[in-house]
Design a protein that fits this description.
The structure is a homodimer. The first copy, chain A, is an alpha+beta fold. In chain A, the strands form two sheets. Chain A has a seven-stranded mixed beta sheet. A four-stranded mixed beta sheet of chain A has the order 1-4-2-3, covered by helices on one side. In chain A, 34% of the residues lie in helices and 23% in strands. Chain A has ten helices and eleven strands. Chain A folds into two domains: 144 residues, 60s Ribosomal Protein L30, Chain: A (2-Layer Sandwich), CATH 3.30.1330.10; 167 residues, PurM-like C-terminal domain (Phosphoribosyl-aminoimidazole Synthetase, Chain A, domain 2). The interface between A and B is large, with 74 and 73 residues. Strand 1 of chain A pairs antiparallel with strand 1 of chain B.
Chain lengths: 346, 346
């Protein structure tokens, strides 16, 4: 079947699908000399480094996104961004992506082109090139991406097990926007539009089109941070993972956590909780000394922002299991029902 | 939860799952200096080469395997092998694997350990190291693997678009065993055990535990082959893909196609058809001159086997679309209903 005969409404065959992806990805034979692009058994790519960063992340319809309340473009975007965020959290830049699409046989050509436009849009924006993948038939849509990355400093990956007592804990930007967007979407679905329209738009944008901090991975590495991860499942849960890996505990001052301004305005009563526990903001959380944090902040903020994003500190491990303690402004411990989002517990 | 408290029958949480994989993969802190293993945002691995080979392949319960008629070990094995086969078909050796498991929340710890034992078994046998992945919740099991590989000769990947008129077409081993195993399994399920027990065991083994030809990728590259792919969807369909990519046609002599001996004995009336159209044998099909084929054969067969596996030849493209013509012993064209397995058409 030639592409001009293919209707956007038509169901798709595996060979059509490969052809669409080849056209979108390889362009007009633009594969560099010595490389092999989409359409062979595997891709062959230039990669002249001593190390490779490799990650995989998958999203399932009904678990990580709802295909009936999200555009195909945004679904494709988010799946790439979550991988770019993992690459950034290692102190690396995205290089190559392979995409596995598990889709119902009834998926229309136009839907697939929507997914691809989101995939390629995020790659164009934050780095990386789609070089291959696989398509399989499935009841529900599952998008699985694997990406390679190149370390900005081959001697200095950003790891989880390098937090030390005395480090401060910082985040690279305001949190809770994605969780606020989910709340706004649910209310809108119920016919409630009680919040300011600009705030609603900002929160929905944070939820549907998050931005990975690929731009700050370089500053973290350059200014000597050694411990970072991305906030994908919620600050408290992800910080606990750092504590588990590093053999330390952490204390968080709830009042110091930067909150997405639109979230603070729209839902002030739950804003702090969502900033502490909401997932998928894709900011980075890192442990470092005050000087490193000030340097990283100077790379993104002008003026008096040296202490931006400092949310707490690392302390020695108190008991067997790692613990992240959250304190209110009076220094009293706050308990949460859920520290974050566990996809299997939900 | 500590691992000794975990029952093989218990349902699994995401953090348990990561812990099980870490224990199986990282061993006792055996990650080499400068690398980062399972449990961080991404893996960091030594890869000091100018090019990387990158592939992805997924398997869906009910489409590519049936979890109620296959062990978890074999499911894990097959998913790795299909990727190793793609790597071999590029003239490369497997290096790293990332595994994405989409599994129901009710999946038991013992089942997961079965999948992992198959995954790690195939990696130990044919090369590659499990370095990371992701786990997501899903109605049905989908196993998605991405692998990196290292070219045996960085100047000479084996490609699909390099078949030329005058080349002969050869396969690296007998075909049809996997399709014969599927037939034997269906008959056994219906209570029929009409074929010889040894043949049945061999065919089931070919279907459930196929072997990728990682061992022959080196001979193909060394002796000057430039065009190869693996037989994953059936010889005729995969050879057609070579013809499409290379702008040529092919002619296959059905009588010369090497048939799995157990298939020939067990199902003689359909053996040739299954050898031509059955998928998942994971032999390599390649186009090269007679001397190259003789050299490749000398690397695996002793004695008078110079012409082993030659099944046909490449000819100039006759019309607009690529065509693979199949001839019987009298030189008459044979038509098939299906050239092979298209997962979306089935």
């Amino acid at each position: 079947m030639h592409s001009d005969e293919r209707s956007a409404q038509a169901p798709i065959s595996e060979s059509d699908l490969v052809e669409i992806i080849k056209q979108r990805v390889n362009g007009g034979g633009a594969v560099p000399d010595g490389e092999v692009g989409v359409g062979d058994d595997a891709a062959v790519l230039r990669f002249d480094a001593d190390h490779i960063v490799l990650t995989a992340d998958a999203m399932v319809d009904g678990v990580h996104f709802l295909s009936d309340s999200m555009t195909w473009h945004d679904i494709g975007w988010k799946c790439i961004v979550s991988n770019q965020s993992d690459i950034a959290a290692m102190g690396a830049q995205p290089e190559h992506a392979v995409l596995t699409l598990a889709i119902p046989a009834t998926t229309r050509v136009g839907d697939l082109e929507g997914i691809l436009s989101g995939v390629i849009g995020a790659l164009d924006r934050y780095g990386g090139k789609l070089v291959g993948g696989d398509t399989v038939s499935s009841d529900r849509i599952i998008i699985s991406v694997s990406m390679t990355g190149r370390l900005l400093n081959e001697e200095k990956p950003l790891k989880r097990d390098t937090a030390r007592p005395g480090h401060l804990v910082a985040v690279t930007g305001p949190l809770g926007g994605s969780a606020g967007g989910l709340m706004a979407m649910k209310e809108a679905t119920q016919g409630k539009h009680q919040i300011n329209a600009d705030d609603e738009a900002q929160l929905l944008n944070a939820h549907f089109r998050p931005n990975p901090r690929v731009d700050l991975a370089g500053a973290l590495v350059e200014f000597g941070a050694e411990c970072a991860m991305d906030v994908s499942d919620g600050l408290l849960l992800d910080l606990e993972r750092i504590c588990v890996a590093s053999g330390v505990d952490a204390v968080v001052d709830a009042a110091r956590v930067p909150i997405e301004p639109a979230l603070q305005r729209a839902y002030p009563e739950v804003a702090t909780e969502l900033a502490l526990t909401g997932g998928e903001d894709y900011e980075l959380v890192y442990a470092a000394d005050a000087e490193t944090i000030a340097d990283v902040n100077s790379a993104q903020h002008s003026g008096e922002k040296a202490q931006f994003g400092i949310v707490g500190k690392i302390i020695p491990r108190q008991r067997t299991d790692a613990k992240v303690t959250v304190l209110d402004e009076a220094g009293r411990e706050i308990e949460f029902d859920a520290k974050g989002w566990d996809h299997f517990a939900g």
